[in-house]
Amino acid sequence: RTVDFKNTVIIMTSNIGSQSLTEALSDKHLTELGEKQYDETRQRVMESLKVSFKPEFLNRIDDTIIFHPLSKEHIKSIVDIQLERLKKLLQEKKIELTLTDKAKGLLAEEGYDPAYGARPLKRLIQRRIQDLLATKLLEGEFKDEDSIVVDEEKGEFKFRNTKKRLAAN
After folding, report:
1. Are 45 and 9 in contact (CB under 8 A)?
2. C-beta atoms surrounding 92 within 10 Å
3. Do residues 148 and 77 share a domain?
4. Strand 147-153 with 156-161, pairing
């Protein structure tokens, strides 16, 4: 059988040169590069590609795109997306989960690494929010149909129930 690649787009990804990007970001303690810094970093990344791959291979590639690093706004959006997944899980028990802006900010700060992007964020939410919440549910601190607010206090996540329960007679 013959396959026609005439109208095919092949996308390849690599971490080659990511060290240059990490160094550029750590020099400025930023999550964003200015255009001049980006152009300089792009040149270093392209040099890394030339060291890693033969010219015959690189000449067959039509275009090379170096992605800009994630901004703080991007990270906050990713935090919201990841939290929506957790909220959907909790909806089965009719539990409403809300995180304050301070709590989301702490997740964004701790869940981002210039070298790995937002990859650590999912594990952070699992470890610092989901696991603690599961423990509190198992211990009876929270129950079905509760409204739980997660806030940040001195670098830690604090959970509180905002739904008032009627005392049992």
Report:
1. no
2. 8
3. yes
4. antiparallel
Q: Are residues 11 and 51 in the same domain?
A: yes
Q: Any residues with CB less than 8 A from the CB of 83 and at least 6 apart, and which? A: 97, 99, 104, 125, 129
Place of tokens 């089965």: 92
Residue 169 forms part of a structural domain = no
Torsion from C-alpha of 150, 84, 68, 123, nearest 10 degrees: 70
pLDDT tops 90 at residue 69? no
pLDDT of 122 strictly over 80: yes
Model pTM above 0.85: no
83 and 153 inside one domain: yes
Rounded-to-integer distance, Cα 64 and Cα 57, Å: 12
Rounded to 10 deg, the angle between the 18-28 and 35-52 helix axes is 150
Looking at 66-121, which runs of residues are DSSP E strands? 96-99
Q: For the chain, what is the domain count?
A: 2
Report d(CA 89, CA 87) in Å as an integer: 5
Beta strand extents in 22-120 (DSSP E only): 96-99
Last residue of a domain, one of 69, 92, 120: 69
Q: Would you state the pLDDT for residue 129? A: 96
Q: Assess whether 47 and 116 both reside in one domain.
A: no
